[in-house]
Amino acid sequence: xKSISMQLGTAENQSRWRRAGDWNVPLDLPxxxxxxxxxxxxxxxxxxxxxxxxxxxPVSVLWPPNSILAAALLLTPxxxxxxxxxxxxxxxxxxxxxSHVPPPMILCWFISNSCEAVxxxxxxxYLISGPIRLNGLRNVGFFCLCVxxxxxxxxxxxxxxxxxxxxxxxxxxxxxxxVRFISNVLAALTVAPLIVTWATSGIASLRxxxxxxxxxxxxxxxxxxxxxFAVLYKLGWEADSALLFLPLPFLLxxxxxxxxxxxxxxxxxxxxxxxxxATHGHGPFSGGSAGHNALSIQMFLIVLSVPLLFxxxxxxxxxxxxxxxxxxxxxxxxxxxxxxRRDSCVIDVNExxxxxxxxxxxxxxxxxxxxxxxxxxxxxLEKLIASTSEGEPLxxxxxxxxxxxxxxxxxxxxxxxxxxxxxxxxxxxxRDITEQKxxxxxxxxxxxxxxxxxxxxxxxxxxxxxxxNLAWMxxxxxxxxxxxxxxxxxxxxxxxxxHPDERQVVRNAFDRARESQETFEIEHRILKPDGETGxxxxxxxxxxxxxxxxxxxxxxxxxxxxxxxxxxxxxxxRQEMAHLSRVAMMGEMAASLAHELNxxxxxxxxxxxxxxxxxxxxxxxxxxxxxxxxxxxxxxxxAGDVIRGIRSMIRKDAPARQRVNLNDLVMNVVRMVKxxxxxxxxxxETLLEPNLLALEADPIQLQQVLINLVINAFDAMRDTPLxxxxxxxATERNGDGAIRTSVRDYGVGISEEARGQLxxxxxxxxxxxxxxxxxxxxxxxxxxxxxxxxxxxxxxxAQFHFNLPASAAAL
Length: 811
Fold this sequence. Notes:
This protein is α+β, with helices and mostly antiparallel strands and 811 residues long. The strands form four sheets. Strands 2-1-5-4-3 form a five-stranded antiparallel beta sheet, sandwiched between helices. α7 (173-208) runs parallel beside α10 and α9 (248-279) packs antiparallel against α10. The radius of gyration is 49 Å and the shape is elongated.
């Protein structure tokens, strides 16, 4: 029984039997104990059923195993029903086999018993929401309908059919059906309620019962057992049938004082006494044939049990309602008093009423409202309470009442009529709203001042209550979003005014603010009533109570549509100016184009002449010739890339950028300038930091920067000994997150007079130079948001480096 109660805790978490979705059975101790209890209970029930059989009558007057199995299914989760049936099967087999029942009949009877239990428990679990408790009229009604009536009615067809099929027993099919049906009905009325009530409430009530309760239960048990023994065992069949009602007072006592648990226990005592006495030839049900005696006992017990179960359920249900009312009355946060209608005397008050009005409970009881001087005006409270008997109950009526010491208080009053001990009374609920009204008045004044300040600053105020999903917004805010002055607002109202592309962003911002309790600020678009798109900035934060629970979100909305439009116009003007500036630089770009194309074109010419010399020589090395042609193609592509880069700089469109791995770009440049390095007898080295962040940049322009710096490094080492000619290209990540790229040579270095003009256009230190290379380098780097610089290096030579800021990196 205890393990079934433990399994009930799981069943209580399922509102309906069909919602039990977890079919994994944990092999823990409660589950194992449940199976063991079912096995033992079913076995003992079967043995008891055989012991309560009229011989040679083939069917027991009361067959408990079916009801024991049904009770077990009612108390356990749906997912372990198969385990309950499995545990009952060996008990059924052992008990029936000991009574010399053939195996086919044993199996058939277990099928019919299981069908009855599954049908009854399944229907009951479906119709009764929540835990199975027989403490209410509705639950008992469904229990009797499903477990007592429908399940035995249907399973008896199967049971009688199995008996006829196996040739076991005597009698016609319908006679067997009738006997089985009545026997199963009686078992469902006496055994199943006994198990269910004790498992759900009886065991728990024993732990908290007072000593007087135990004494009363003991007296009831002794009295009922004595009367049952005297009436159902000692009296003969010829005794007056009116004496059968002698146990009725004790049954009513059990139902009234101990509810469904007491009634089911008392009914079981009477049923067992009557059947036991009759099967042993004693009592008023032993004078006829076995079949007649069995039917008489069954009808007597069924007629006795049904009204008693319903009576106990009604009494227990009423008691639970009254108990809940008493608890609510005592613990209510509002002041409550009960007034008798006929003389307006106070019957009871709760503690909160004493706190507000200053009268102790003893001072208030048996006094009228006038005696307590509660009226602030003549007869106000009596008139209000009297009106409840003529019409609808009162709800939140505001008025003034006088207290014993604190003077007149403003209260909100609700009242209704109830019957207390069969006497009409008024239940009055009073809530002191004096401080609330003062706070509301102060809040209105504060809101008026805040609204005036907000309107002066062009701010729209709003407040949102997540629990009630209600929002308030100032008239300025309603005008921004296009809401009517009386239109109720909620979170959906807020979101409906936001641009569809940004609604989820706004929802997420509100959710984060509620969880983090930090101030948030977002800028988003809105759809104005005229169909135009506007821009607003929303700032807000969550207000919490003393325990840190979020209460509401408050904030402001600023309409920045005009500013956004001005910013867009300014951006357009800037783009136009930038385009004009690029066009004005076309002359400068032409010179730059000549400078940049000089290198690849010179390479093309040199490689072409070398090819001619190979051909003139007669002995042509096809491998060398193929390398020359590949160099010519590469230089041609370089020239095309330079032209495309220059074109993109003078077009009105913004240059197209992509993700660039700077290390890969450096290695591409090394391959491109390798022939120049060999021509200048220079060694190329790289020192690249791994795992660099990718850049959002124009790869052609960055390639131009590196080629210019490397070619300049070659030229700077014309007078450097061959064994010291070396160019080092390095990449690294600065401490501030920027990416630094450097090109170092071992040439003559930078002179003092050239240092200040090094990156100016048309300034050069080379006789054949145009002065455009380093100027173009600076323009490209700065267009990417970076900086470029150069300095002499200890040990000889110079180092040029450029930095691209972290903001250009794709994080």
